[in-house]
Every structure is written in C-alpha cells, then in structure tokens.
Amino acid sequence: MAFLFYPVRINSNGVYWWRMLKVAIVGATGYTGLELARLLIKHPEIQLVAATTRTYKDLPLSSVFPELTNETHVVCEELSIERISEISDLIFTALPHKTAMEVIPEFLENGKRVVDLSADFRFRNVSVYEKWYQRHTAPQIAKKAVYGLPEIYHEKIKRASLIANPGCYPTGAILALAPLLKSHMINTKGIVIDAKSGVSGAGRSPQIHTIYCEVNEGLKAYKVGEHRHTPEIEEHLSVLAEEEIRVAFIPHLVPISRGILSTIYAPLSNKVSTEELVDQYKKFYDGKRFIRIYPPGKLPNTLYVRGSNYCDIGLKVDPRTEGVIVISAIDNLTKGASGQAVQNMNLMYGFEEDAGLGYLPLSP
Ligand SMILES: NC(=O)c1ccc[n+]([C@@H]2O[C@H](COP(=O)([O-])OP(=O)(O)OC[C@H]3O[C@@H](n4cnc5c(N)ncnc54)[C@H](OP(=O)(O)O)[C@@H]3O)[C@@H](O)[C@H]2O)c1
Does residue 148 share a domain with residue 60? Predict the structure, then answer.
C-alpha cells in the first residue's frame, strides 16, 4: 500500500501528501533522462531533486539541455547511492542495461522505490534474460519486480517497490495485440510484428549506425528474428493468451527522431468485421486514459502521438486473407519509456494517473 512507502494523510475524499515527492533521475543526460526531466519539472506532485551523470558533473542540467533553461535549478552530479538515497523518495534509473542492476539493489536496500527504464528486471525468468542479454547479477531482486505496463498490470504496479518499465517496441506491440489474445480471436501461430522506430530509440551516445548520413533518407530492417525485445513481447503475450506465444518480430530504423509504428498481422480464428473488432478494443481499453482506439477507416500515425503519452491503435479486417491488421503508434521516449515511467510513479503514489502527462501530441 502507498502509505507503507511514503507518509500520507488520508481523508474521506482520498489521499493527500504532506509534502512534494522527492525524485531523482539516475542517468539523466540521455534521451530518456531528458524526457523524464521535461515531464517531471512540470509535474504538480513532485520535486526533481537530483540528476546524475558521469560526463557532465557539476554542470546545470539546463546547460546540458538548453531547452530546460529557466525551468530547473538542478545541477548534475556523479552518482553516489548514499546521497541519492538520502535526498529522494523515488529514483528513476535511465541507465543502460547491466549498469542498472549494479545500482538498483542498494537503492532498494535503502528503502527507496525505483522505476527502472532498462531491461534488467523485465523478465520473470532470469534464464531468459541471461540467454538474450548477459549474466544477471541480482536474480533475487528480479523476482520482486513488477512489469510496468499500466493498462495490463495496474493493480500490481500500485504496490511495487521496483518497476521494470517496458521496452519501447514491446509497449506498442503488446498493447496492440492484448485484446485479440485475451479474447482468443486470432490463431496464435503466425503473428507478425513489423515495427518501425525513430533513431532516438538507440539512445544519445554516438554510434556509427545512428549518425545522420547513415540514417537520413534510408529505411532498413535490423536484428531480424533476433532483437532482444522479442522474448519480452512473447512473455507478456503468453500471459494474456494463457499459452506460449512465439512471434516473428521485424524491427526497422526510420529517419525520424521519435516514434514507433507497429504494423501487426494475425490470422483470425473466426469471421468478424472491422466494426465488431473496433468495439471489442474499445471495451477492452474502456477507461484507459492513454489508449485511443481509432474508428474504422482511420489509422494511426507517429505524428499524432509525438511528445504525448498516447498509444493510438487502429485496425482493419482483411476478409480476402482472413486476417486482421492492427497498427499502433507511440512516441518511443514518452509512452515507450519516460511517460510510461511517470504513469507508473503516479499509480505507485496514488496521484492522478495522468498527472504531469497532459501534453497534447506535437504534430507539425
Ligand atoms: N531511447 C529509448 O527510446 C528507450 C526506450 C525505452 C527504454 N530505453 C532504455 O532506457 C535506458 C536509457 O536509454 P537512453 O536512450 O536514455 O540511453 P542514453 O541516451 O544512451 O543515456 C544513457 C544515460 O546513462 C548514463 N550512462 C551511460 N553509461 C553509464 C554507466 N556505465 N554508468 C553510469 N551511467 C551511465 C549516460 O550519461 P553519462 O554518459 O553522462 O554518464 C546517460 O545519462 C536504456 O536502458 C534503454 O534501453 C530507452
């Protein structure tokens, strides 16, 4: 329960905090760190108290990211687990995988709650993580982590001390397929997820394959059949379907900064119309603030979600092939990472689920 982790005052109208929640970002100078800062600085219930980095120590966060000028007084600091634990209630870790699991156990030992954006705690079965990533150095903690996809694991998230924030591709794919699998509407052999991501998905550290001339005006598939998000997608689709699911997952890199469009093909198990399926999706996601189901004839576009926490979903039944095509769009840095992390924090502390997340999409 929230009050086990944080001092609260309760009355008949709900829950009231007696002070702002103090929040730190560990790994604040990457793309998800910046997106967290953008959202947290304007969040009505929290105070951003620290931002850590190895590279930009002692520089104001607003000089690392001039877009934050006059918006925050936070000065970047090197990570000290003792100091961050002392001054914060909740810690967002926006570090590369492997590095995250080196620091999170100590934060938890110090009684802190953590929302981790890396892949280190996303798998129930550590051997799956070890097969696709590397040796796990904190397997005992992995069991306690809750997968932070609020539309599916809402109740567990409220009580969690460690949230494993989902990957960007898994967020778009799982949300697009969940209603079909839960209601056993598709043949589970033959699901194909063709997903296209903007370049910020690869992070801010310079790498040859993400520099301008390598990406601009090009479009390519990569890590076909071997991307690390495949087992994460399969794990949660299997929970929904109550059977083991395997998918063909084909990621692509597209020359846009942010956004993921997932085009998903699945064979239908029964005859159904587009209108009937759209109704099913609307019922499944009824009351879910950040899911927008498009009416028949309209399909999502990454531009319609850019800079917002929305996941837009549209679909079409193809009677010729007896299949359904579901298309989802998210912003990889918002619903695919930092926005979802803030949504998880909101649930953990009993804030409004959309607190600090009310931004409309930034289309051209
Ligand atoms: N980008 C996305 O769309 C996205 C979506 C979902 C999840 N994620 C996950 O979120 C995490 C962060 O991703 P990102 O895209 O923000 O990466 P990024 O842009 O490369 O930033 C990584 C951050 O971690 C710090 N860092 C790097 N290596 C470190 C180390 N060994 N020890 C301590 N700090 C280190 C970096 O700052 P310094 O170098 O200054 O220390 C930087 O602040 C990753 O695990 C990623 O897989 C990313």
Answer: yes
